[in-house]
Amino acid sequence: MRLIWWAGTVLAISLISIILSHQHALDPIENLSLTATAPVEESLRNLASPVNDIIDGITDRGGLARENEQLRAENEALRVQLAEQQNLEQLLVEAEQALEVKQSRPEDLLLAANVIAQDPSGFKRQIAINRGLSDNVDEGMAVLSENGSLIGTVSRAYQDFAWVRLVTDPDSVVNAQVNLTTIQPLEGTQPQVLIPETPASPTPAPSPNVLEDPSPTPAPPEPSFVRGVAEGDLRSGIVLDLPSGATVEQGDLVVTSGLGGNYRRALLIGTIKSVDNQLQSPFTRTTLEPATDLGVLDTVLVLISFRPARLEGP
């Protein structure tokens, strides 16, 4: 019963308040309450403002993180496209250079290959190429740079790839020759004919069994090259041993000599970088600068038209 009376009273008060509010009879009371509670509400709002800023920052930070992630993804995609474009441009330049080498060597059959790996041990100087037995690549074939200089030899050939021993590898041995920058002139004198001023008596006819040649025999021409053996060296790169007293200079060109049948003649190996003439040494030791930078090889040419002779001892 008491609950019914309490519910009825609350209902009656609510109806009366609604009627009075509708007729604006309670406006003075509402204004007074708002005036009284305004400072408290403003203080509470000021106290809650940092919390609201933190909450807004957290929500905004999530949006910024998503936006940054999207920008990073777009930037990565653009960099990938740029890298692909640069790679295509590089491949085009290398293909053009390889084509120029092929055109300059019409008698040679050159096969372009890409470097796919290198020996990581540090005790070898070898690279792997993406050409193998299926491309007629065989062991012992010479491998050239994209500009046509000798960089190594196919050491092992598999079906779809091959390993190339560079000329700087300790196991690399190449019969080489130094083309001298200065060629010595031919020694000898011009033929001289002696004519007597006043012959006292008629000159007797020469005997038919005696041949007279007043001109001395000219000396044979000095060679314009010096031959030696170029060996790979882990510290010096390439070491070339020449006969003692060889007159070579820094900058002289070093090419393959063709001896032994392992390489075609006149393949450029490099230039002389230093000369070490030691007294009482049977050899003149020189170090070579390879014609191309062997540390940045990307495209190489396999000389598949030249087969090594594989000579045996007599």
Summarize the structure in words.
The chain is an alpha+beta fold. It has helices at 2-22, 27-104; strands spanning 110-118, 126-129, 142-145, 150-157, 162-166, 173-179, 225-233, 237-243, 253-256, 268-276, 283-290, 299-303. The strands form two sheets. A six-stranded antiparallel beta barrel has the order 1-2-5-4-3-12. Strands 6-7-8-11-10-9 form a six-stranded antiparallel barrel. Mean pLDDT is 77; it is low at 182-199.
Question: Would you spell out the secondary-structure blueprint of this structure?
Answer:
Elements: H1 2-22, H2 27-104, E1 110-118, E2 126-129, E3 142-145, E4 150-157, E5 162-166, E6 173-179, E7 225-233, E8 237-243, E9 253-256, E10 268-276, E11 283-290, E12 299-303
Please work out how many helical segments DSSP would assign: 2
**What is the H-and-E element order?**
HHEEEEEEEEEEEE
Give the N-to-C terminal Cα separation.
134 Å
Mind describing the biggest β-sheet?
Answer: 6 strands, antiparallel, barrel
Low-confidence runs: 182-199
The overall pLDDT average reads 77
Helical content class: 25-40%
- Radius of gyration from the CA trace? 47 Å
Counting DSSP E segments of at least 2 residues, the number of strands comes to 12
Sum up the structure in keywords.
single chain, 314 residues, alpha+beta, six-stranded antiparallel β-barrel, 32% helix
